[in-house]
UniProtKB/TrEMBL annotation:
Biological source species: Halanaeroarchaeum sulfurireducens
SUPFAM superfamilies: Dimeric alpha+beta barrel
Listed name of the protein: Chlorite dismutase
Region feature Disordered, mapped onto this chain: 257-285
Keyword list, A-Z: Heme, Iron, Metal-binding
Pfam families to which the protein is assigned, alphabetical: ABM, Chlor_dismutase
């Protein structure tokens, strides 16, 4: 008998596809329709705001359904109860379930064997990424494709009789295809063995509907799919806010305003944090205080780009080759800003810095970045203390020596500053004028005391003469 890969389960999922009885809806009195919308909007809003888990509503294109309601919860009992609760709403009486899929999120042993061999030794960044597979987030906007699938059991191609090593190799190839869509397509794969008619459910999210077609098309050529994949019906639609349900029922475009062009801002993007590490409480007050001292610390969350900084003890040349290959995939997507390898001027680990326009894209990228060789940790990932990242130090080539001299002077000064642990200057391997500074502190107030000092003010003044762009400061937990 072939070996079964280990799995670890997370949240249960129910994809609830509904058809609306439009004739009944049109014939109902307006007050009944309004009451039904008010009730179901409250129900779905309350479900969205639950502590653990998520609920979302989507349009569905085509004839197979009108809406999809997706529930994610820690237990099967909870998702089952939500289905019954929806049926009890007045709006539910205007709908009929045309299809559904019950499954559970999981980490699989094909692509993450090290997690099952020794979980304690798994890099924190990779562990965080794997946790998002067990407890995924549903993107707040964009398109969705859902389809069920199974593996073939033909006499010639029987997945479950194929040796484990061969299956793992095919799934690794399949995973590489998925990685090429990092930052563009969010993939949620759930297991349905013993729960539904198919073996897995695949839910894909993207802000570009064509990307959903592209990833499915490209994956059809992977051996694991070409020889062994079997698929059910595909459903495609778009998420919209619960408050737009009345617009949906009135045949208006949803999300409301989705057909209007987004306004753009000519200012350069700011960096205020990275997924899983940014301070939220008190950031606005901190930014205001720094702004008063002419220190730019990014815009409030929601207007920023998102930065990831991971440290590696691998050979910098080897690391750079891997990053170059990964970056070539990232650059296919509009949400990618930059990814590069930085080396410290003295002893220490190299850093991979990746900047994205959206938090969901950065979340997705973090898993792929964690797979890079020698990753030992993430910037700001300390059990105590506080960290700042001064990023986008773009030095005028004619003043590079002046900048380095200024940093060395500040570094010597910091050695005597209370609460300062360490500051490291790292330089982009591909552009020696691009640098960032990683500083570790005992606490926020120690860093702020330094930012308030005359010495730092003099440093900022010097920077105006030697930098070609304004640096941004990132505050990490």
């Amino acid at each position: 008998m072939a070996d079964a890969p280990p799995t670890e389960e997370g949240w249960f999922a129910v994809h609830d596809f509904r058809e609306i009885d439009w004739e009944q809806w049109r014939n109902a009195p307006e007050r009944r329709r309004d009451a039904a919308l008010d009730e179901v909007t409250t129900f779905l809003s309350d479900a969205e705001d639950i502590g653990e888990g998520e609920t979302a509503i989507f349009t569905v294109a085509g004839h197979e359904a009108d809406i999809l309601i997706l529930h994610l919860r820690p237990t099967l009992d909870e998702v089952e109860r939500l289905g019954r609760a929806f049926e009890r709403t007045a709006f539910g009486s205007f709908t009929a379930r045309t299809n559904s899929f019950v499954s559970v999120t999981e980490i699989g042993g094909y692509t993450s064997p090290e997690y099952f061999e020794d979980p304690e030794e798994v890099d924190a960044g990779l562990r965080r990424y794997l946790e998002t597979k067990k407890r995924p987030s549903i993107p707040e906007d964009g398109y969705v494709t859902f389809y069920p699938m199974a593996k073939r059991r033909d006499p010639e191609y029987n997945w479950f009789e194929t040796p484990m090593e061969e299956r793992a190799e095919m799934m690794a190839e399949h995973g590489e295809t998925g990685k090429s869509y990092a930052g563009t397509v969010t993939q949620v794969v759930t297991s349905a063995f013993g729960l539904d008619d198919w073996e897995w459910g695949v839910t894909l999210f993207a802000t570009d509907a064509v990307a959903l077609k592209d990833i499915v098309y490209e994956m059809r050529f992977d051996e694991a799919t070409a020889k062994y994949g079997e698929f059910g019906s595909f459903f495609v639609g778009r998420r919209f806010p619960v408050d737009d349900l009345d617009a949906f029922m009135a045949a208006e475009t949803v999300p409301v305003g989705a057909d209007e062009a987004d306004e753009t801002d000519d200012e350069a993007p700011a960096v205020s944090g990275h997924p899983g590490g940014a301070h939220d409480n008190g950031d606005d007050d901190l930014r205001e205080e720094l702004a008063d001292r002419d220190i730019y610390a990014g815009s409030p969350r929601g207007e920023d780009v998102y930065a990831l900084a991971l440290y590696s003890d691998a050979d910098p040349e080897t690391l750079s080759q891997e990053v170059t290959a990964l970056r070539s995939n990232f650059e296919h997507y509009d949400t990618h800003v930059t990814t590069a390898v930085y080396e410290p001027r003295s002893d220490g680990h190299a850093a991979v810095v990746s900047v994205w326009e959206t938090e969901s894209a950065a979340d997705t990228a973090s898993g792929f970045l964690s797979d890079l060789p020698g990753i030992v940790g993430r910037a700001g990932e300390t059990e105590d203390g506080w960290a700042t990242l001064g990023m986008f130090y773009t030095v005028d080539p004619g003043h590079r020596a002046d900048f380095l001299e200024t940093f060395d002077g500040v570094d010597e000064l910091l050695a005597d500053v209370d609460g300062h642990r360490e500051s490291t200057l790292l330089v982009n391997r591909e552009d020696e004028t691009d640098m960032f500074i990683d500083s570790q502190w005992d606490g926020r107030e120690h860093a702020m005391d330094f930012f308030r000092s005359d010495a730092f003010g003099e440093t900022v003044a010097t920077g105006r003469d030697v930098l070609t762009d304004r640096p941004r400061h990132v505050f990490l937990a």
